[in-house]
Amino acid sequence: MIRQPTILLVEPRHYDVSYSINPWMDPMRWAADPRGLHRQAAEAFAALHAALQRIGFAIEVAPGEPGLPDMVFPANAAVVLDGRALLARFRYPQRQGEEAAFARIFAGLQARGLLDAVDTLPPGCFQEGAGDCIWDAHRGHFWAGFGPRSSRQAAGRVGAHFGQEVVALELATEQSYHLDVCFCPLAGGEVLYYPSALTDAALAEVRRRVPAHQRIEASADDLRHFSVNAVNLHDRIVMARTTPQLREALSRRGYRVHEVDLSPFMLSGGGAYCMTLRLDRASTMQALPARNDIMPARAADAEAA
Ligand code: ARG
Question: Which of 34, 53, 267, 282 is 20 to 30 Å from the Cα of 116, by its Cα?
Answer without folding.
Answer: 53
